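Obj.: predict assembly geometry.
Materials: sequence records (below).
Method: joint structure prediction, all chains together.
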Amino acid sequence: MKLTVTCTVNGREVRADCEPRRTLADFLRHDLGLTGVHVGCEQGACGSCTVLLDGATARSCCLLAVQVDGATVTTVEGLADNGVLGPLQEAFRSHHALQCGFCTPGMLATATELLRDNPRPTEAQIRTALSGHLCRCTGYQHIVDAVKAAADPGEPEAGEEQHRS
Amino acid sequence: MGEKLIGARMTRTEDVRLLTGRAQFVDDVRPPGVLEAAVLRSTAPHARIVRIDTAAAAAHPGVFAVVTGADVRAVVRAPQPVIWRPDPDARIPPAYPLAVDRVLYEGQAVAAVAATDRATAEDALELIKVEYEPLPAVTTLDQALAPDAPRLHRELPDNVAGRMVVAKGDVATAFAEADVVLRQSFRFARQMGAPLETRGVVATWDPFTSRLDLWLSTQAPNLARELLGEVLGLSVDMIRVRTPDVGGGFGNKFDFYGEEVVAAILSRVSGRPVKLVEDRRESFVATVQSREQHIDVELAARLDGTITGLRGTLHGVLGATLSTIGMSPCWTAAASMTGPYDIPAYEMNVVGVLTNKPPYGSYRGFGLPKANFVHEHLVEMLARHLGLDAHAVRRKNFIPPSAFPYVSPVFVFDSGRYEECLDMCLRAVQRAGWPSFVSAARARGEAVGIGYSFHNEVTGFAPSRIANQSGLQNAGFDEEVVRIDSTGHVTVRTGLSAMGQGLHTALAQVAAHCLGVPLEHVTVVSGDTEACPYTGYGTAASRAAAVGGAAVLNAATRLRAKVLRVAGHLLEVSPDDLVIDDGVVSVVGVPEAAVTLARVGDAAYRRINGLLPEDELPTLEEREVYDPSNVATAYGCTAVLASVDVETGVVTLSGYLIAHDCGTVINPSIVDGQLHGGAAQAIGGALFEQIVHDGSGHALTRSFSDYLMPMATEVPPIGVEHMVTPADHVPGGFKGAGEAGVVGGGAAIAHAVADALSDFGVTVTSLPITPPSLLAAIRKGAGR
Amino acid sequence: MKAAPFAYVRAAGVGEAVAALSEGALVLAGGQSLVPLLNMRLVRPHTVMDVNRLDLAHLHRSGADLVLGALTRHRQVETSPLVRRDVPLLAAAMSHVGYVAVRNRGTTGGSIAHADPAAELPAVCVALDASFTVQGARGRREIPAGEFFLGPHRTALAADELLVETRVPVPPVGSGHGVAELSRRANDLAVVAVVACVAVSEGTVTYARIAVAGAAPTPIRATVAESVLLGRTPSADVIASAADAVADATDPSDDLRAPAAYRREMAVVLTRRALRQAVTS
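Observations (raw structure tokens):
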């Protein structure tokens, strides 16, 4: 038996039918075609499917689509505007903060929330904030650098090594 | 700017799509009418299949096809291929995509369903009734080798799949004449690459034309195509393999899996495209696993620290059947165990042992992390034993720069400046202030230490004949095509697979550099066996930049010559007097006498009459088949700063430095990223990751809650220093860097822990180091 | 990894929710544990009842108690100035629950009803003598935290009862708190965690609350350790003897992450650390 879900996704009201067992992740991917939402574990352990739900990060594999009826969802597809990358996306690009890109949409969602709630995070705070996200490619260094740079444009430029001192 | 692109920190051409959700991974591919499949997996570690009843599943609404082992066995022409056979006499038990008659490990594929969607397919799996008659299982080396051990394969006399010996020099004499003989045993747990995107395939096998069209998340599209042809009895022209964006590979997507065959057969049976994407839970039983080895060695040395001999036995704890690459990671560990050291006498017996666990396959490092752990442990052990500085022992035994090319037990190393690299790392450690940090922490009573490891690594794999000689039933060359179009822009077509390492950017940089065009004028096309050229091996073995990059460089260099000939004709000057910069060909010293590449392209494709020299054929395209004359040898030194909580056994890393030489660097950001990512995998392997089976064979590690890969909080800041010793035999001098980060990390972390716990005399001989085991070692040390 | 089919109802009121429960529905609150279990088909309810729209997100002070509606989210509790002022131990413990995306969704009621023996919130409730208000078809009742947790994922909540509210007695003004947690990775579920709340007056301990998560089938209150502290000066030796007393209260078991003996030992080590934090904070 399918239920109708109506919600606002990336600024547009959408409506689709799905089974109650459909997770929000599968709903966004398969019913709405937002394949920038990546599913890495389906148990809330990898963070790849993280989206912003009413402005707060949520792992879309741990929500049923029927729960978000009436809510507002932002996916990675909603972070850039008119062909222009958002500042975090641009920082990820200039700092080589992604390799395969599978974890990237989730990382961006969490970094967006972090910088909104804490515009000048320390490196430790950035690492803690990102610690719900697995990245198997980058070793996180360039991701941390990118978030730091997006937080404070006055920070040193890309490529500078992070030796402990 | 074109001239300086090799070596430039360019942002990647891949990134914008990936940052905006516009990439296409295999699960994003939805051909019209696509069905989704799911696989029923064995709940028994070892059992006879008494009966399978699929009637209820087949009748379930939404189900289009159900297949069992017998169905698949009836279609395939060959068992799953094992392409790497370092032991020509290896006993290779036949393995099929779905279990036939018996299951040999928990999670082995037993049946598969294609349905309207994945949830319906999973509903149908629950309706398949399988009756198992349990058989005793073996999961440990001791169980498998016991005289009365249950045999996995009745056609084999025991559970040994193969034996190999890697040797060099006179080992007996070395040990007879040694001043010192040290012994040590090492244990490495089962681990895996675990790319964030699981494996997946979308297969369309047209029942009318027999053409098979696959979308496959793979590192080796040409290999997959050849092996599908072998297994399904198709000529390769009937098979198209397309590779979408690949969400990480790390070796795990090099191997050829039964699911690829199953998806094809489900498609054939249903007449529809079939998508089969492994979910995370099943990835822990369905994707190859690696690293599990027991290594027992003896070292012979003189009192001055000169190592004169190394010998021992390496047991590979294999799965129940062999993966695509067979026992080669075990052989590679043995082939590489002398590392960067000039050890004149060496003998390693390699024994591959079958257990009731998933197959042992490719994972970044491919045997090298174990080899590195062993030789670096032995160097430190010898230094302690003789009261020498460990770096002094390293220096004494390093292969000196003058000794290259150096004949190691298997491979010939091309070049290296190991001592300089060690010094570079030591300087970086000083600059980072680690020594004073350690003294201050120790003064506060904290257990803090610094560990080192030096590694070398065979990269740029491999000359086809050497690959074949090592038992690989596949080549190691690359074919690349570089074309300039009628607008003067460049397209590079490659058979390599791009799975996140920045291959498109790297190859584009090489082409743009050689052709003198802006990077944004180059497009790299990969991922379609119908449109792209052939690669012998795929993207693996630290070879894409070295072999593919060299092929692009050669092709582009030849193409540049043609561009200059055409431009010379247009400008009525000799090609020798021309330079290309930023997409413009001009006369040296007369910049206004110039022609754009767009005009050259136009002359070569469209307005040919009078513009293209009479003796030139139209088009601007060069194809290069590059088969390297030798492997290359990258190397590096890793330093780790670690602290240990002596009350809990918890290890915290606070610094990580790598000095590295991979020859000419195409894009330092990409190489840094490769080293960082490898380091994180080394950290996972050293401190967190472990695939555990209980004594009766049940797989206990089934999710990311059990298989603990490091997060941003577990990985310390990582610094990288580059030195460059170009590989003289490789055009461009590239060596390859894909695996480097993972090779030396385990040993360096272990040594940092040992250094932190030197008061307790703790040394580490098995990985991963877990808090309970380390706490027990600390207790043991405290009680001395 | 797709859930087995189920029906979905969204409860509009507590009464309606309780009625659905008596027909065997399973409660979906934050979903951070339940949805993965559904996805893995480890639970297979015929009906999932979504309680997220119930009016139970209240968080306020009522007399001597802090009152948390069952739908207060971890993040809300963690960042609430009221919680930080009145029960800072609770706010501190919350910051150890997963990471922000988990805490944005996870609810206090869900965490308590899920009764993971290694979870922080149940341990805090046990330490501070919280009580739970549950609503059933036959009415409301209060269950003290000490009687609520029966085993791993087992509670005194009947199948047709809904947890609606948690009342946490506010510790004495001026008491200090400590949270010492050992987890394999920073934000993993604890291997062992200890929460402590201590008040010291004129050099002697006047109030001591200690609970341990991850060292028994349920969170446990370390009453013997508390009595070691009460009336004494919280010196290093006294803290050490109190912590030693925790070992006997534990009843750990082996699992993939740690053997039982290790958990028992860590309960002692972490109690020492939590108490040190508590007496210096």
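Conclusions so far: Residues 26-137+192-286 of chain B form a domain with the Aldehyde Oxidoreductase; domain 3 fold (CATH 3.90.1170.50).
To do: check interface contacts against the pulldown list.
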